[in-house]
Known about the structure:
By secondary structure, the protein is of the alpha+beta class. It has helices at about 15-20, 40-45, 50-60, 65-75, and strands at about 1-5, 10-15, 30, 85-90, 90-95. The strands form two sheets. It has a three-stranded antiparallel sheet with strand order 2-1-3. Strands 4-5 form a two-stranded antiparallel ribbon. Helix 3 (about 50-60) crosses helix 4. The chain is globular.
Amino acid sequence: MQLHNLKDNSQKVSFVEAVKTGLGRNQGVFFPESLAPMADVDALLDMDFVMRSSKILSHLIGDELPSSTVADMVKNAFNFPVKLVEVEENTYCLELFHGPTPVSYTHLTLPTNREV
């Protein structure tokens, strides 16, 4: 996966480089140069959170990391319940206060980068 810095388009990095670098030049975030559509989105909806997240992340990363490595990273990162609550019909909210600490929203965004 090739990513570019949104504040400096000349800075291009791989997924692993982006994770290790954090922010790019001028405090820019890295964004994929292109996003390929997923073939069977409906099948994702039948998967649990960890499996679905692993499939999506593997699709985005491509062959930079083996799918089994990504699956292990996601499984280890999200070892607490992730609760989706229906707000109204077909509208859901991810409750970010479930998890190992009172600020568990950080646990939904940070854990996988420890292993890259």
